[in-house]
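Dock D-xylulose; give full complex structure.
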Amino acid sequence: MNTPCYDLGLDASTQSLTALILEAEAGRIIATESISYDECGAAHGAQRGVLPQADPQVVHAPPLLWVAALEALFERLKAQGFPLHQVRCISGSGQQHGSVYLNASWPAALRALDPGRPLAPQLGTVFSRPTAPIWMDSSTTAECAEICAALGGPAATAAATGSTTFERFTGPQIRRFYKSDPAGYRQTAHIALVSSFHASLLLGAVAPIDHGDGAGMNLMDIQQRQWLPAALEATAPDLARRLPPLVAPWTILGPISPYFVARYGFDPATRIGVWSGDNPNSIIGLGLTEPGAMAISLGTSDTFFGLISACRTDPRGEGHVFGAPTGDYMTLICFKNGSLARERVRDAYGLDWNGFSAALRATPPGNDGALMLPYFDPEIVPRVLTAGVQRRHLNATEAARNCRAVVECQQLSMRRHARWLHAAPRQIYATGGASINPEILRVMADVHQCPVYRFQVSNSAALGAALRAAHARRQADGAAPDWSALVAPFATPRATDRVEPRPETAPVYAAAEQAFGAFETEYLATLNA
Ligand code: ADP
Ligand code: XUL
């Protein structure tokens, strides 16, 4: 009997690192294991993956914490006897946009890793900037304006790079670093994304960036899928030599670093596939290999995304176009006040998730007109730079109505800000940590008036990464790409996991969208006054 062959997907997300091992040929998942950064982060000063900062617009993470988490996760998999030696290919998923700044010693340090010693202490001196700005950072408004002006304004920037400039995108972040610490920038020989940083560790060499994550930088020509010279020039001097190459999402980068072979028992022939962002990976983990259904991920951020066949950008400048792992495009809208906003409401009334769900059950669709603009943190869509929660027909003391208001208004905001796609979703695939909550999916189905499916694997980014590893491996071995056959056993929506919309709630939410839109418009006008 042949020894089974496995593929490993890793998901380096905002709050945790997850591993998912699957046997693609048998259509089964062998193992999943997750470690929260809080379990290994004490020494790095982070809480829930981010460093405390005085300025709420500045959100950074310590990259050495990610190194420590990778190591701790592999230790755990090894201790539990997972068959790491049978893994044939590894790919991964990173929280998008975040950037890691490394000095000239980075490639040599990767090559010289000593398997007799832990990883993190060997990489203490490779950083030219000790912290990495992540997607939650909103401190680069001035740099966004500068780059956007240099590229000809918002519409031209979106047409060229897939998105107008956004505070969390890597280009504006690089420019802020260059302006605020020119010496640090001069010391920087390599800039990595969260995805390519992790891939570099596993590869033992500087890893390329794929077209999915590259599109989240305001630096890539979205049509040609190459670095855009005008964007690089508008961002920082001599940027091209600090960036790795861009490659297709199915590229095999090379064999695994000998460090992981010696330390964790991987086969030396294990291949490393290029990593991508969490949202492009989720497209695959949800089985969205053709245009059709839309996905909603309820993770730290809430995202609304789907595959599109032609590159079409948002004239209002709120949505993004990224490269999809299939070689198509995907569209995405990102809301920062996702799970953490729901948690803030839950905690304000001393509830657990059961209590929060009971509150959703106890309150009517439409919430008798209660509305909330849930800007617990600065928001990405719509662009709100200063936190501040707003309520209408709702008192902060009303526990159950506030629980419903945050969930309903998040979904109403998605419905409103996805209008530019000119196609209401016909079905929604739900994923992310909060997608295990049926009461939240009930609100989702009613607000969008379409069926919502949930999947057995709620971490679609890790599943997508493992499936991308399998795809890259098969393609490198000469097999014709067949995405739908590969994803079918893992990501086919099941009728039993379907939440139907209730038609009687349609007029309620049509009116609620109008009222929510008016509230939002009025509030945004006060900010710009
Ligand atoms: P990320 O990948 O961005 O790190 P996850 O997709 O793992 O995040 O989601 C984590 C979030 O899931 C937590 O912050 C938590 O608020 C949310 N969550 C977990 N369980 C539930 C639940 N039963 N109901 C609602 N939200 C939940
Ligand atoms: C997407 C975005 C977030 C991060 C973290 O544009 O900023 O979804 O990828 O999940």
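Observed: The mean pLDDT is 96.
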